Every structure is written in C-alpha cells, then in structure tokens.
Inverse folding.
C-alpha cells in the first residue's frame, strides 16, 4: 500500500490420480478442479480415514513421506502431532506435507497437500554455481547456498528447482524457486547475563508499565532476564545501515539494545515495545501452554527508532515511508541465523499530519498491544505451520495474527472501545481519526467491510496485488473468528451463529491457535482451515457441542465450505 501524508488543518507419488478430494465438501473456488491432492480426512468418516492412514504409511515405508517434526499437544493432553514432509528421489517436495494427529496412539486426522511426482531423474541442467550467478546478475543476493528440491505447483505437479533465499532489495527478502532446467522463476514467496532488574516507564499512551531489564555496570538494557527466551528490544538509533544488518540476521550486541541510565525509562516507544513483547509471551504460555514462538523458547527480538515522526514527513528513500514509518513487520527465518526472527515497529508521523488515503494520523506502532502481538504471531506461524504468504494461505497467515493480536489484547485489557481497551479493531490505539469521517484502526474483525475488506468468501479478492490479497481476504477468516465468539447473523448469507460468548472466548482462541499451528499445511486453503478448526474443536471440547457448532456455523456464515 502506498501512503501519502499531508499536514492537517485543524500426489501421492504412487497415485495416478491428479486430484482426490478427501471429503464430500466441494473444492475451494480459488483452485482449479484438477489441482492438488488435498487431505481433509477427519470429517468424511472412519473408512476413508483408515484408507488414507494406510496410504500415508505406505509412502512412509517408501521414504516418500518422512517425519519432519513431532510434538505432544500442550493444549489437548493425550494428543500428538506429526508433520510429514513429502520427498521424491531423495529431494524435498516443497509445499508437500501431511499433518497427522494421534490420540493415545490412534490416528484421528490427516490434513495436507501432496503433489504428483513422476520425474525419473533429479539431475539439474543448471548447476548451483550457474543459478547463483543468475541471481547475482538479477540483483538478488543469496542469503544461504541454493538447494535442489522439487517444488509443488498449482497444477498439481512438481518440478525440479533450485530454492534460493535471497535479499532482493535492502528490505525485501524472499524465497525463490527457479526451474533447474531453464532458470525461470516458478514461485516466489515473501519472507520480510548479568543482574536482572525491573524498571518502569510511561508508554506511548501515558500508561505506566514495568520494564524487565538487564543491568550492566551503571546502564540498564532492554533485555528481559525474567522470562525463559532471549527477549531483546533493539534501538537502531536512526542508523539505517545497522538496521538492515540486524534485520538480515547480524549478531546483536548489548550496545545495540535500548538503554536507560536509571531504569526509569523516558523513551515511551522502548517501554511499550519491550513490555508488550513480554506480555505476548505470557499470553502464549499462560493461555495456550506453549513456550514462545516455537514451543521451545526461540528468541523474541523487536527493533525500534529508525526514523522519528518528524523525519517521516520529510524526504526519505523510496518506499521507506510506507514500510518503516507507518508500518510494523516480522522478518522471519531464514533471514536470521539459527532461526532468529525479528520484529520492527515504525514511529508513525506527527499528530498534526494525516494520511491522505484514510484521514488518520499514526502514532508509534509499538504503542498498540494488538500490533505487537500480531507481528509476534507471524513468528509463531513461521515456526509451526509455515503458511505461505500469498493467496489463501497468506490471508490465513494474516488472519491468524489478527486473531491472536485481538486475543492478547482481551487477555490484558478491559473490554471497551476507548484507548487501551480490548475490541475487535486492529491497530486502533495507533491509527487514530483526524479528518472528519475517518475511523480508528486499519482492520475490523466485527465489520471487515468498514475498511473495504470482504467478510464473505464469494466476495474475496482474486487479483495479483497484495500477494493475492493476503491483507484484504484476511477479513473472511477474521469474521468467522468473531462470529464464533460473539455470534450474530451474517449480513450477506443470512446464516445465524450462536457464539460461545466473550466470557468463553478462550475456547475459540484455543481451537484456532491449535488448528493454525498444528493442523494446517503451508499452502492451506480456507476450506482446510474450516475443517482443521472443526477438528480442533472436537478434539479439545468433545463433550461441548456448542463450541464445534459455533466454529462450524461461523465458517458457513462467511461462505467457506
């Protein structure tokens, strides 16, 4: 999105079938009728599930499916999840994976996508060196050595390709899949201790917070030693080159961190960024029983203070305003060594300036708890389901971040529509109305159409912009999440939903978190998200049919089958 600103006046390899839908539900409209074999074997009956379990086991015995990760379910005791990666001729089939759930050793669900793999040879026509040279000639800098894989394509087949994680521009990192024969781009996926002490300070909205810090000598640094993961807030202090290095995974040293001389913090942005990182960790652990981003206390690193609000309304390098002033983002693995991701929060614009497109002024992004939690949830997604950031899977990625951002806000703040209160609008504490007729926030789960986003699958965006509408189409899943909690009758479909109620929102939060992190494959569709959340509701609340009905009816209301 381009912003302008003005001053305000006031296959299964062994299967010959190209496609085999594993439930009675119709194929999602976003895919052709001869696309990918999609597994949804949980709601179509035990006989089908049994056949698919056997088929998956045969593929395992042939080494065409291999367990890539496995984990006991921290939310549903007795359940275990395995992520199986598809292989062909010893090479990974990117995009091909199966999520297998067991309960007390018995398989209860399978979700995933598998691609046709009929190639008899895995010898590339273009060498690794030749691909690296081509990338350099095109202005792409490989972040790691390109690797040979098969990549699943939208037509259901898989093609031999070189996978390269590259930096395209100073702030654009992505994964490229290049045809191993021609070099053509087949797919592109965006990627962007000493003594512990507790200080305090006022946040962006003048609320007082505790700040967990590390004391080194006479200086206090924004390193949280009280929570299990490495939790840092980096202050880049206007150094753009250093910022780019840190985003791209350069080691962070103690002097890089935000600091204060007496532990009574005066930088409100540092106070909020650091406190809200910790709060989000607390929510994930206390509410969901999960240890941080990856379940194993992966580092949580935020970065702040590249441009001041005044600098943001002056001359800047191309694209920096939209990305680095009025935005926040997660730059995930593989940009960071050892899987370290990093968040960035822009500082907004002066309060007497507004965005011409929306009539809003924009405060520091770190001052909105739901924004901080949203970006951290992108990290959770990177470490779990790895939902690809384009099309329907990208919209689900964005929606999941909105869901958790809203959930964290409701966990720590009182319900209401004022500042520092919990609601179903995203970013309302930092995107504030300034021009008559403008509103707070930038997305609404209750009323997606208020911001021009669809709330029904029939109205989804199918064009090329925004990586296939990842932000716009998030409104569909967001509204399903809202209806499952609050209930209501959909304005378009007329379907009435009996939600579980705000007081029982934990049920829906747990259902969606578990489904989006444990059951969905990287290229999940809305249809699979529906099936996975229904399955999750059954697993978590087998004796409470109201939860499953709320989830089922919510997806039906927004047109997802």
């Amino acid at each position: 999105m381009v912003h302008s600103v003005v001053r305000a006046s006031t296959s299964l390899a062994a299967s010959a079938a190209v496609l085999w839908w594993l439930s009675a539900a119709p194929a999602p409209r976003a895919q052709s009728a001869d696309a990918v074999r999609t597994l949804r074997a949980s709601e179509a009956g035990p006989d089908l599930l049994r056949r698919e379990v056997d088929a998956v086991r045969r593929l395992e015995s042939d080494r065409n499916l291999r367990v890539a990760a496995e984990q006991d379910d921290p939310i549903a005791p007795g359940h275990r999840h395995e992520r199986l990666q598809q292989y062909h001729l010893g090479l990974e089939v990117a995009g091909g994976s199966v999520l297998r759930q067991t309960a007390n050793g018995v398989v209860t669900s399978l979700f995933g996508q598998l691609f046709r793999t009929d190639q008899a040879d895995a010898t590339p026509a273009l060498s690794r060196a030749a691909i690296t040279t081509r990338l350099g000639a095109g202005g792409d800098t490989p972040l790691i050595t390109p690797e040979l894989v098969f990549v699943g394509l939208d037509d259901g087949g898989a093609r031999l390709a070189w996978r390269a994680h590259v930096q395209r521009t100073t702030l654009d990192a992505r994964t490229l899949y290049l045809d191993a024969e021609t070099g053509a781009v087949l797919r592109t996926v965006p990627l962007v201790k000493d003594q512990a002490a507790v200080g305090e300070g006022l946040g962006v909205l003048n609320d007082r917070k505790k700040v967990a810090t590390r004391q080194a000598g006479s200086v206090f640094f924004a390193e949280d030693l009280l929570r299990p993961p490495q939790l840092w807030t980096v202050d880049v202090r206007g150094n753009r080159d250093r910022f780019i290095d840190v985003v791209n995974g350069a080691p962070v040293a103690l002097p890089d961190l935000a600091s204060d001389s007496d532990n009574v913090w005066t930088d409100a942005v540092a106070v909020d960024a650091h406190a809200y990182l910790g709060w989000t960790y607390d929510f994930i652990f206390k509410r969901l029983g999960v240890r941080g981003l990856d379940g194993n206390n992966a580092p949580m690193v935020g970065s702040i203070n590249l441009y001041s609000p005044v600098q943001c309304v002056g001359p800047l390098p191309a694209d920096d305003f939209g990305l680095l002033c009025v935005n926040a983002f997660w730059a995930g693995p593989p940009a960071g060594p050892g899987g370290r991701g990093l968040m960035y929060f822009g500082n907004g614009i002066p309060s007497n300036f507004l965005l011409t497109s929306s009539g809003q002024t924009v405060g520091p992004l770190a001052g909105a708890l739901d924004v901080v939690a949203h970006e951290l949830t992108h990290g959770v997604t990177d470490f779990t389901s790895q939902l690809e950031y384009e099309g329907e899977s990208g919209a689900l990625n964005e929606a999941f971040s909105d869901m958790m951002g809203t959930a964290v806000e409701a966990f720590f703040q009182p319900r209401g529509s004022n500042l520092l209160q919990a609601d179903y609008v995203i970013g309302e504490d930092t995107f504030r109305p300034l021009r008559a007729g403008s509103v707070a926030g930038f997305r609404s789960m209750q009323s997606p159409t208020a911001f021009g986003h669809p709330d029904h699958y029939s109205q989804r965006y199918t064009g090329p912009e925004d990586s296939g509408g990842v932000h716009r189409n998030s409104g569909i899943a967001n509204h399903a999440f809202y209806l499952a909690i609050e209930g209501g009758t959909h304005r378009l479909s007329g379907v009435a939903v009996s939600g579980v109620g705000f007081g029982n929102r934990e049920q829906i939060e747990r259902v969606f978190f578990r489904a989006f992190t444990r059951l969905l494959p990287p290229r999940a569709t809305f249809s699979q998200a529906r099936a996975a959340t229904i399955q999750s509701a059954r697993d978590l609340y087998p004796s409470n049919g109201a939860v499953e009905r709320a989830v089922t009816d919510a997806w039906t209301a927004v047109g997802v089958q």
